[in-house]
Amino acid sequence: MKRIISCACVALMGGLLFLGAQKDVKGSNATNGNEELSKMWTAMDHDPISVADYDMKDYVTLGEYRGIEVEVPTVKVDKELVIQAINQALTQYPDYEKTDKKVVEKGDVANIDYEGKIDGKKFEGGSAKDYPLTIGSGQFIPGFEEGLVGAKVGETKEVKVTFPKDYDEETLAGKKAVFTVKVNSIGQEVYHTFDDVTDEFVKENLGYDTVDDLFNYVFNYQKDEAEKNKESASKEAMMDVLLKNSKVTVPKELLEYKIREYLSNFVSGVVESGGKVGDYLQQMYQSTPTQFEKKVTAQMKKSIQAQMVLYTVANKEKLEADKEGYDSYVQAFVSHYQYESKKQLFKEFPEKELKLAYRANKATEFILKQAKITYTEQKATKE
Question: What are phi and psi of 294, to 5 degrees?
């Protein structure tokens, strides 16, 4: 997929955006098919447009930006937050506990021995003993788990299945197999918490010698992350104040171009990965195409407004793209995003936008240096 950098996001977060879209997707019944969305969300067919193509005097009335008061919310890293994170991690390592149940039902954890054969011959990876299988989890190929529903503890039964045609192991794809399965016991998954987990369990499953070692690691990690996030949180809070103080009109053509560019590249990325756009949006964003486009539109508008304000500050304060700093900035992008050379970067990303992004970064640093920043610790939201 073509790598396209959004200057506004570069200025604020140093990140990449994959840009593109069209405003024709109607309602929540839009197709999951890629072809229709590819047609709807197509990039505009003309030369790239950027903030650098407009005279900011016509679109921006700059408000106060020197010495502004900025309140930055930060996460309070305490024992409660650390334990919350550890408990979340422990859900990935359930224990198996036997029950008195005698007949397998959906949702049970059946401890089984199984041996699979194709044309009467065993195959690699087709056998195991004392395997805890959650019935209905979809861990095994279609038909296997369903075939165990109703089986009794101590019973041995045959389960006939067919491997999917697109199965990862090509030598098994599409072939019929017979599994001989013995149900040893029926149990349930038991999840540990910080209050009851043992040193032994932590060492075996998470790789730390003791529970205290695990706690200290998570605490220090979260402290480091909170400190790193202060910078991005400060920039975001500063930008909110700056936009509130200023009046910005985003050129309609520029906004439409950036939205369609984003969504077009978004579709391309999903298609290249072999997915369906509609399904991907539901799974990753819990959104329909229409809902997703509305979110992109709102975020893109704010991103462009931020870029325009920062560009205006850079102009007013005469913050230019000095050769040494700019060259270092460009080289950082070449290295971080693994371009073969500056020449390749400039083919995909106009140099005028890179210079604009660099100047916007300088404006951000200029404003933050003079800002009166107050950090306020807040409790993390429980997921």
Answer: -65, -40
**DSSP assignment, residue 186?**
E
131 phi/psi in degrees, rounded to 5 = -90, 125
pLDDT at 19: 29
Which domains does the chain possess?
Answer: 7-77+214-378 (1.10.3120.10), 95-190 (3.10.50.40)
Taken in order 206, 207, 208, 214, the sign of the CA dihedral is: negative
DSSP one-letter code for 53: G
**With contact defined as beta carbons under 8 Å apart, do 349 and 5 qualify?**
yes
Copy the structure tokens of residue 27: 């309602």
Query: How distant, in Å, are the alpha carbons of 27, 93, 136, 161, 262 from that of 140?
Result: 37, 19, 9, 10, 38
How crowded is the C-beta side of 228, counted as CA atoms within 13 Å?
7
Q: Tell me the C-alpha to C-alpha distance, in Å, between residue 54 and each of 51, 60, 221, 274, 304.
A: 6, 11, 44, 39, 12
Q: Where are the beta strands (DSSP E) in 229-328?
A: 247-248
pLDDT in tens, 149-165: 999 999 999 999 999 99
| pLDDT tens string 309-320 | 999 999 999 999
Angle of helix 252-272 relative to helix 277-285, nearest 10 degrees, comes to 100
Q: Which token pair is 192?
A: 């540990």
Beta bridge partners of 157: 181
At 73, which helix (H) or strand (E)? Answer: strand 69-75
Its pTM surpasses 0.70: no
Q: Is the dihedral of CA 217, 223, 229, 231 positive or negative?
A: negative
Q: What SS3 state is found at 112?
A: strand
- Contact call for residues 74 and 227 (beta carbons, < 8 A): no
Token couple for 207: 């790789």
Residue 28 has pLDDT above 80, yes or no: no
pLDDT of residue 22: 31
Helix (H), strand (E) at residue 374: strand 372-378
